[in-house]
Specification:
Layout (H helix, E strand, L loop, with lengths): L3 H11 L11 H10 L3 E3 L3 E2 L10 E2 L5 E6 L8 E8 L3 E5 L7 E5 L13 E7 L2
Parallel strand pairs: 2-3
Antiparallel strand pairs: 1-8, 4-5, 4-8, 5-6, 6-7
């Protein structure tokens, strides 16, 4: 079993994407996406952002999903990889967690990721 961040690092590198900073700490990984203007907040995330919509940004498979897991430190403390995206929500895979996959729904009309019980969705790192 991998640490959650190692799964992301391995997936990116094996997929030919070497843009990700070499870190195994979730907050640093989030900072890396933010510095590269590739991070979008959970509220901005969308299934498909309409043209000229500067608030919502489209989530795509291969993105990194950042969480704050309840019971952990009050910061980003877990990550997963977006496997698929539909108007209903985001299917993700993860490591170092009791379940190997999960689903996070979008709000009304495919905008804004909703936080399931025990998790706060912090945002998305685009590949």
């Amino acid at each position: 079993m991998f640490w959650c961040t190692w799964l992301v690092q391995k997936a990116f590198r094996e997929g030919g994407n070497n843009s990700l900073e070499n870190t195994l700490w979730a907050p640093t990984m989030q900072d890396d996406f933010t510095k590269r203007s590739k991070f979008i907040s959970a509220q901005e995330a969308a299934y498909k952002a309409p043209p000229l919509d500067f608030i919502h940004k489209t989530v795509v498979p291969g993105s990194v999903i950042f969480f704050n897991v309840s019971g952990g430190p009050y910061r980003t403390n877990h990550v997963g990889i977006v496997y698929s995206v539909s108007k209903q929500g985001v299917q993700y895979i993860q490591s170092n967690a009791p379940l190997k996959d999960g689903f996070v729904p979008f709000g009304d009309n495919g905008y804004g990721l909703q936080s399931p019980p025990g998790l706060v969705v912090v945002g998305i790192g685009l590949p």
